[in-house]
Amino acid sequence: MIWFIVKRLSMLIPILFGISLLTFLLIRLAPGDPAEAYLRLSHIPPTNQAIQEMNVKLGLDKPLIVQYVDWLGKVVRLDFGISYVSKQPVWDELMLYFPATLQLTITAVILTVCISVPIGIFSALYKGGMFDHLSRILSFVGASMPTFWLGFLFMYFFSIKLDLLPVVGRGSLAHLVLPSLTLAFAYISTYTRLLRTSMLENLHQPFVFYARVRGLQERVIIGRHVLKMALLPVVTAFGMTIGNMLTGAFIVESIFAWPGLGRFFVSALSHRDYPVVQSCILLMGVIFVVCNLLVDIAYGLLDPRIRWKGER
Amino acid sequence: MLRMLMVRLFQKKALLFSGAIILIMFVLVLFAPVLAPHDPNIIDIEHKLQAPSWDFPLGTDHLGRCILSRLIFGTRVSLGTAFLVMVVTMIISIFIGTYAGYKGGRIDYLFMRICDVLLAFPSLFLALALIGILGPGPLNLFLAMVLVQWVFYARIIRGMVLSVKEQNYILAAKVSGTPGPMIVIRHIFPVILSQVAVLFFMDIGGIILTISGLSFLGLGIQPPTAEWGAMINDSKQFFRSHPSLMMYPGLMILTIVMAFNLFGDTLRDALDVRQD
Questions:
Q1: Which one is predicted more confidently, B122 or B87?
Q2: Facing residue for A144 by CB, picked from B116, B122, B261
Q3: Which among B120, B125, B253 has the least Cβ separation from residue A149?
Q4: Which residue has the higher pLDDT, A213 or A35?
Q5: DSSP secondary structure string, A87-118?
Q6: B138 with B85: CB under 8 angstroms?
Q7: Alpha-carbon gap: B35 to the closest alpha carbon of chain A (Å)
Q8: Residues in A lying within 8 Å of B, measured between beta carbons
Q9: Which of A213, A304, B89, B209 is the most buried (most CB within 10 A)?
Q10: A146–B246: do the CB atoms touch at under 8 Å?
Q11: Which residue range forms the structural domain that includes residue B185?
Q12: Domains of chain A, CATH where assigned
């Protein structure tokens, strides 16, 4: 197992390197001059002389490769530079907004698991029944639903019509319900179907037959053996989902005025606050890669075949 | 037997039903100027936020524009952009995926490393960041979507080509001296194209959702162009007093995405031989 993890970790290095390079180059695609953007945001008239001085100050006069190495050296020490807008260190700002996004995403993940796993299991066990059909239709609608529209529908019915939950903002637990449910909805649909398919595939495997022959209780067979196997593709998909959910959170945040990273990022985009934009992109890339690594490790724990293959 | 028949029948029905919705949408796309009762962009403040009437079947928005006409013209923008993105993405992906898969070697290695990095980001996020950096607007929306999507499909197509390449009839064609490009066009494309078509229809719904989502955030199609996501964004501020403004465009998106998803799923099941 240790070797498996070490191997996976070593594969991480070139990818992280690629991510940093892409992030660095991406920002260079922006039309307009960063120095000019900085001056405008600081309310200094962007004269030629001022721009040149700013280029020197921001290190933009050096060759691209030197800039990259400089930037990478700082990033490794968690120095993401200073925001053009607030003049605060970007890292501090990120850490100010990130917990809200993380809270939203983690709640949505928990909701997804708690709702889709039971529905998926029951749909598979009672395949073709009423419940299965109902969950099929619901998940079909769920997968086709625009998140931003769903958010407003929830807000309209639960907050305005029924007056049960707060409309926007962050604070109490009640504030968390609608945004996280909105975010989770599409994933609940996907995972219900995924788990159902995967359960059905495993229900007719020889090991299930063998377990029945051994006289194990049906509950044990389903709960311990089939479910464990059926969860494998679900776990794999989850690695992808976390990143997409974090991005989905950006849209949900803008609907529910949730003070998270998404709103921070979108406002940084509109202000052309390059250090913030760059850091957000890098952060997302790293989170996504780390999530996939964790999923790989979880996969290795769940399925010994993969672990052994890795060790050989 | 009966059950299988029922399933088949349902699938056919699903195919017909979703196909009909898609067809209706395309009629709307083609004949929008004829079918829409008004010009979608004529502003008439005196008649703003009106209830449905004979003149304005679905009422008017906050600038007095006919909502029905805007919905109809919205099909052009949403479907048009989504199809354009998907077609261009697929062409690029087929080209690169086939080349990398068939040639192998250094090109393939380079391609896979590009995949590693680009697929290291959530695709929606990368699109968001790209548009944000390039600046909002339809052209940049298109560019960002294609740049983000092509890797994903190119990798799938590369995989398809790799598995087809090892088949005996390809080896036979090689042995008999058929030139490489000819093998690709005559023997590999026909096999992978049906799978690519399934991918196309399965994912176009998602593309429509992404485009309207980005337009909702104000990063994609810009007002005053009638686009569904942008319309929902516009009606945000009147959402308490006039919730219907938000309902119609949302329902349009839901309907068309559901139709495409159903169509894609049914098509996949119908073409999947393992089902039998």
A1: B87
A2: B261
A3: B253
A4: A213
A5: -SBHHHHHHHHHHHHHHHHHHHHHHHHHHHHH
A6: no
A7: 26
A8: 14-15, 18-19, 21-22, 26-27, 29-31, 140-141, 143-149, 152-153, 155-156, 160, 240, 243-244, 246-248, 250-251, 254, 265-266, 269-270, 277, 280-281, 284-285, 288-289
A9: B209
A10: no
A11: 14-27+64-275
A12: 2-76 (no CATH), 100-311 (1.10.3720.10)
